[in-house]
Amino acid sequence: QVQLVESGGGLVQAGGSLRLSCAASGRAFSPYAMGWFRQGPGKEREFVAAIRWSITYYADSVKGRFTISRDNAKNTVYLQMNSLKPEDTAVYYCAATRLYGDYSDYQKYDYWGQGTQVTVSS
Are 36 and 93 in contact (CB under 8 A)? Predict the structure, then answer.
């Protein structure tokens, strides 16, 4: 089992920044690919970013604004979000998988955090 706990969400004005953290516990962290997903009001869950080892993947909607990183010594993955827009408003979830392949597919992920709310005001 892997337990994931997100933090760092909040209310920010458009154009601002937030950094989300996801702390993992329970098993060795480094073999897992870590992903960030989000679900806005009335929307389906969507892929945001993922990282496996040092290789990163991004949704087109966040490319150039968001940066995913990980610190294996701290068992933590981060999502730095800059130039935030109102359409980024969502609950953000981190997830972990040992599978390889399409990291934008939420069904690949075995473990999920409880989510953290990000609200961007215009």
Answer: yes
